[in-house]
Amino acid sequence: MRSYLTNLECTYCGETFSADEPMRLCDKCGKVLYPRYDISTASKNFTRDLLRDRAPNMWRYFEMMPIREESNIVTLGEGFTPIFETKALGAKIGSNALFLKDEGLNPTASFKARGLSAAVSKAKELGLKKLTMPSAGNAAGAMASYAARAGLEAFVFMPQDAPEANQKEVIVSGGNLNLIDGLISDAGIISRGKAAEMDLFDVSTLQEPYRVEGKKTMGYEI
Ligand SMILES: [Zn+2]
Fold first, then answer.
1. CA 49 → CA 46, 52, 65, 82, 91, distances in Å?
2. Predicted local confidence at residue 163, as pLDDT
3. N or C: which end of the chain has fewer CB within 10 A?
């Protein structure tokens, strides 16, 4: 398999960048970067038939994922969550076709697994060794778990009143948990400061290009 990934593009000013070196935000305007793909070739060659015999996880869409080499995929089996009809709730709110996709069945019990599987895979591919992020909950456990799977070091900055379950996820995964006396925004400031000081790569939401690529697979599955 090969990915149709071509480059990174700024979602605001349109500047393009290589997708083969570590990038966080646009060098020119500081806004979010998105990976771009050769959609016209993919639309001809990447057919539904190819998916049929693939493993039931989000990496079955490898051609539209931002990873060059399959060996860099860091997976715990995320994605391919069930979709079921919720008739009683539907009737209550006046819908005759209400469906729920149960993202709680992901490996780290939330949709955050998808984004962190993608971001940690790309970090591994780019040779990054130490990751950091602020989190108030589920993303922390996901990041620490995927970093552990990849053999990377994880630093997590959480408000001290974050759920205990998520704190424990970081600890049992071998991550460096730092509890902050403040809000998630304070944790973000400290995480960014430590990133600069200790050469950590910050994988905060929309501060790097790849988490969103995992999340988009929810749409593919639907
Ligand atoms: Zn820009």
1. 8, 6, 18, 21, 36
2. 95
3. C
How does residue 71 score in pLDDT terms, banded at 50, 70 and 90? very high
Say if 59 falls within a structural domain. Answer: yes
Interval between CA 28 and ligand 1 midpoint (Å): 5
Per-residue pLDDT, 206: 87
Query: Which residue range is the domain that position 62 belongs to?
Result: 5-67
Cβ atoms of residues 113 and 80 within 8 Å: no
In a domain, 54, yes or no: yes
129 C-alpha vs ligand 1 centroid, how far in Å?
26
Stretch 122-136: mean pLDDT:
97
Sign, Cα dihedral of 201, 206, 212, 218: positive
Tell me the CA–centroid distance for residue 119 and ligand 1, in Å: 20
Instruction: Measure the CA–CA gap between 147 and 142, rounded to whole angstroms.
Output: 8
- Edge-first strand listing for the sheet containing 176-180: 176-180, 153-159, 130-134, 201-202
Number of domains in the chain: 1
Does residue 135 fall inside a structural domain?
Answer: no
Distance 10 CA to ligand 1 centre (A): 5
Calculate helix-pair angle for 138-150, 112-125, nearest 10 degrees: 30
Residue 12: inside a domain: yes
> What separation in Å is there between the alpha carbon of 18 and the centre of ligand 1?
14
Complex prediction ipTM: 0.99
Q: Show the tokens assigned to 200.
A: 């950590």
